[in-house]
Amino acid sequence: MRKILVANDDGIFAEGINILVTHLLKWGKAEITVVAPDRTKNATSHSLTLDSILRLRKVFMPNGYEGYTVVDGSPADCVLVALNDLVPDTDLVIAGINHGTNCGIDVLYSGTVGAASEGVVNDKPSIAISSESPEREHLEITAQVLVSLLDQGLLNATSSNWVLNINVPALKLEEIKGVAWATMSRHGWTNRVQRREDPRGQIYYWVTGERSKPEQSNNGDYQLLSQGFVTLTPVGLDLTDHESLKELSSRFVFQL
């Protein structure tokens, strides 16, 4: 039987990971190990804890399953500890279900994708899965979609060289138009930081913002998701812009 490691960035007590684990257990085709942060660690990307110790504790999840939490750890910490100690023979890492999408520029900030990326760093096929809506109904549908894809051979479409990033629209199962391979949309955020003053006159900042309008693309993840498709995007860890590298190396030759 295959072994699956499940992690997330919303914390081990979050509804998304509990629903995901419940559906994977009902699926019954893999041994499930859960290692997740003890609390929400959104937007931590691929950060690792290097300046303090990490403690691993057994906990009972709200669904009754016994999992592990890394106290004060990041999502990537959880995967790193699990793969190097608890379950080094894991066949697949699944990070999620995230409470909200991870499309476009969100991928760079996402702790969910960061956890899956740590799986790839450790040479494990890895999936990051997110639901457009944090409502329980849509988290349940997202879990159903993942199990259906696994039954259709999704594991054969994964790789230990890149993260398979999956986003599921906030629709009823029968309303979803299909599954589409997608690129990362070119969109980000506007008005990211608000400057405020506390009652004592001290300045502080609150990170917030609204999504900017994405560039038009026929196969961008944000666009396809808004059209009602489940999106699949292979996200590589090599951030080199290879087209620019080719152009720059031919145009500019520097010497010392």
Describe this structure in words.
The chain has 256 residues and is of the alpha/beta class. It is built from seven helices and 13 strands. It has helices spanning 15-27, 75-86, 106-109, 111-121, 136-151, 221-226, 242-251, and strands at residues 2-7, 30-37, 55-60, 66-71, 92-99, 126-131, 162-168, 178-181, 189-190, 193-197, 203-207, 210-211, 229-236. The strands form three sheets. The chain has a nine-stranded mixed β-sheet. It has a two-stranded antiparallel ribbon with strand order 9-12. Strands 10-11 form a two-stranded antiparallel ribbon. Strand 1, helix 1 (15-27) and strand 2 form a beta-alpha-beta unit. Helix 1 (15-27) packs parallel to helix 5 and helix 2 runs parallel beside helix 4. The termini are far apart.
What's this entry about, in short?
With 256 residues, the chain is α/β, with parallel strands linked by helices.
